[in-house]
Amino acid sequence: MVFKVLLTILLISSSILSLNAKEKMKTIVCPLSNAPEVTLDETIPNQIFYKERLEYKISWGVMKVGKSFLQIDKAVLIGGNTAYHILSRARSAGIAKTFYRVRDINESWPDVNFNRSYGYLKKLQEGNYFYNEWLVFDYKKMAYYGEKLNKKNIIRKIGEKLLRDVHDVLSSLYYFRTMKLEPGKDMLVNMNTKKDWQLTLRVLKRKKIKTPFGKRKCILVEPGVGNEGIFVPKKGKKMYVWLTDDEERIPVMLIAEIFIGSIKAKLVKRKYE
């Protein structure tokens, strides 16, 4: 989120698509949801993120419009490989619930080194808009496959060849959290959200800002326009993310420009469960 690892995680300003509210929507489930849970040993990397839960308040100006959380809640076994399970949820709150109800769920299964993703699930319910999609990345066959539930309530099979190891939106956030970030040095990551594309992360500057943990040195980054997901601001709009300038790279704040003003997601709590 987090990056939509924060706007699907955090974005309240998605486009609304028309759908007959009386029609009961189908649901689809990613096969990775059934991956067996495993116990981590001390040799598994990146355990600083394991069981971490980040909670955010989402505001538009002075108005609170939503809340979200992001966490790695367990480790699972996928094709003989140990992977983390990333979960994020976003909900509208306050007065926003009365005119625009948001219930978004995003999941991702990256390897424990955050070098690639094994798949993702996104289930978005925003106003009258409902969208459900999952992909699994099969690196033995170098292909991906999945399902998409469209606005006409029709499930469509999707799939294509893979050219390389790829990330989804959520896994890319954790990949960047493991990287050394230097202002002026852009970073690229290979993505796939139904087709291959590259995400550019601009590393802008260092600055000390106020956080729930006091003043912290942070790095300001700007995710570039990609194919889809939270990294796609509206035309002419931008998004900025503040990460703590330490080995934890905690995403403490996100600001996304929208058609009127901007949406801010601010970290209010970090804990381990």
Textual characterization of the structure:
It is a single chain. With 273 residues, this protein is mainly beta. The protein has one domain (7-272). 6% of the residues lie in helices and 50% in strands. It has a 15-stranded antiparallel β-sheet that branches. A hairpin with a 2-residue loop joins β11 and β12. The two termini are 18 Å apart. 36% of the residues are buried.
Helix-strand layout with pairing:
Blueprint: H1 7-10, E1 37-38, E2 52-60, E3 63-78, E4 81-92, H2 96-99, E5 103-110, E6 117-126, E7 129-138, E8 143-149, E9 155-161, H3 169-177, E10 187-192, E11 196-211, E12 214-223, E13 239-244, E14 251-257, E15 262-272
Antiparallel strand pairs: 1-3, 2-3, 2-15, 3-4, 4-5, 5-6, 6-7, 7-8, 8-9, 10-11, 11-12, 12-13, 13-14, 14-15
What attributes characterize this protein structure?
273 residues; 3 helices; 15-stranded antiparallel beta sheet; mainly beta; 15 strands
Short précis:
By secondary structure, this protein is mainly beta. The chain has 3 helices and 15 strands. The radius of gyration is 18 Å and the shape is globular.
Please state the average pLDDT score: 86
SSE sequence, one letter per element: HEEEEHEEEEEHEEEEEE
Instruction: Count all strands and give the number.
Output: 15
Q: How many discrete domains? A: 1
Content-based structural category: mainly beta
Q: Calculate Rg over CA atoms.
A: 18 Å
Fraction of residues in helix: under 10%
Q: Could you list the spans in which at least 5 consecutive residues all have pLDDT below 50?
A: 1-22, 227-232
Overall shape:
globular
